[in-house]
Amino acid sequence: MRAASFKTATLLFTLSACLLQLPVRGQSDGDRLYFYRIYFTDKNASPSDFLPGQLLSPAAVARREAQGIPVPELSDLPVSMEYISAVTEQGLTYRCASRWMNTALFTSPEPLDVKELELIPSVERVKLVKRPADPTKGTYGKYGTVTLMNDTEEFDPGVPLNGTALHTSGFTGRGVTIAVLDAGFANADRIESLTPLMQRRGVRATRDFVAGSEYVYDYHNHGTSVLSILAGNLPGLISGTAPGADYILLRTEDGGSEYPVEEDYWAAGAEYADSAGADIITSSLGYFTFDDPSMDYSFSDMDGNSTFVTQAADMAASKGIVVIASAGNERNKEWLRILAPSDGDGVVSVGAVTQELTISDFSSAGYSSDGRVKPDMVAPGVNLNIQFEPDHLHRGSGTSFSCPVISGLTASLMQAVPKASPPEIITALHESSDRFHNPDSLYGYGLPDFLKALSLLEEIHSYMPEDGMTAGPNPFFDEINIWFPAPPGHLSVTVTTADGTLVTKRHYPVYAARSYRLDGFGKRGRGLYLVKVETEEESRVFKMIRLSR
């Protein structure tokens, strides 16, 4: 059954409700090992020892420079291999490192004397983050739930957020890269709703930090469900919130057990995303209790600074990335409250509302333990259409699913206003939300209005012509910008050469932004181009001259 047949064919469903928690294939030998996080005293190097391109991709360097963020910083420097070798000489096996946290993860088949490891001169402290595991994950339901789908109707979660207006204006996340940190992406390369993403090669990179490989299309289907909300496309059934974005798929969660080592994988994944030039990190994961109760966090740790994963998330935000995380599904359980890393100062925490836009019974409550507004906002996250296996559709409920609604629409917003910085974007989302002036511990600032957020950002970054539309620069090289005094509503743009040859024609029944970027001239010749622009208010022809670089 292919994507086109979903509308008319009989759909196949699972026979009972289930929890999205079971790994697709067995766990690794890591379940029989002890994992130690070792904090080092220093980097044994300085930023002057490296050029930016030695540490980061051109896209990552460009993001930092555009936002005035120094590069490289001390936190960008790799963990000293000399220090790592000093530990492996003690019989431990190196797994991965976090340059941001200046830590490395090691394993041992036997428990070790931590005090002896701390005698190594370069070692500041050592923390046991996983012991041999019972292969039964302790936090059932952390991924949300999946229920039977008894109809073929779509509830588009972008509609109540005014997010679909961005899509109809052509803002689908194109040019924006989203890193998805999750438990696995089983079948993501095979399901119908993601076929368009795969066919256009929209997955830029993959990495499994748990198993140490590049392949991520196994182990777990939770990330697949999240990705179907972000990038899925099945007409009348699934409409992704960022179908035009590019994606980096990173497995950082071990679906078979729950231990703090997953925070180390999360940090490694976030650093990979930063290095590869991601603009957004979306993470439908959260941490609070573990299979070993002695490792549990308390609510006082949800203060934006205490947990390892939250420190890593805030570091990612400081690198110019918009970090968006699920608030958690704990309000109808003993814990009640938000999870790490959604408590981070620089992290957007997302709760879940029903299709009637009332808070769900499971959406974790705020505030943070130090009294900040959390969750930041809410989005629909109950009974959303998702897909995680071929020929089958399901409905999912959880903040796992409201989180990618916000993440995808934020990518669309970033495409619309590419000069907006992450702090400006987050502020605009807060100020556009329906409870901004009266936030609470369940809704936070409330339901964001992406059209209002667009307007707020355009007031900062878009030129506002006083007398009708205008276009520029003229002469131009690769793109033309058209500015309007107000959103034009209907918009048609036709470009021809001086001899009347059609170059492109674009039509938008509804166009919501106050500027329009006309690109695609990279392979066109120099000379005169006629740009005809028609809106509800006026029609003009601009004579634009293209120069060669």
Characterization of this structure:
With 549 residues, the protein is an alpha/beta fold. The protein has two domains: 3-23 and 136-457, Peptidase S8/S53 domain (Rossmann fold); 470-546, Immunoglobulin-like, CATH 2.60.40.3080. It has twelve helices and 24 strands. It has helices at residues 52-55, 58-66, 81-88, 114-117, 164-168, 195-199, 222-231, 261-275, 308-318, 399-416, 422-432, 450-461, and strands at residues 18-19, 34-40, 93-98, 103-108, 123-130, 145-147, 177-182, 203-208, 233-234, 238-239, 246-251, 280-283, 322-326, 347-353, 377-380, 384-389, 392-397, 470-472, 480-483, 489-497, 502-511, 515-518, 527-535, 539-546. The strands form six sheets. A seven-stranded parallel beta sheet has the order 8-11-7-12-13-14-15, with helices on both faces. A four-stranded antiparallel beta sheet has the order 1-6-17-16. A four-stranded antiparallel beta sheet has the order 3-4-2-5, with helices on both faces. A hairpin with a 4-residue loop joins β3 (93-98) and β4 (103-108). The protein starts with 17 loop residues before the first strand and ends with a strand.
The first-level CATH class of the largest domain is given as Alpha Beta
- What global shape is seen? globular
Kindly report the average pLDDT value.
91
Q: Could you please say which CATH topology of the largest domain applies here?
A: Rossmann fold
Low-confidence stretches: 1-27
Number of domains: 2
Helical/strand content category: alpha/beta
Helix content: 10-25%
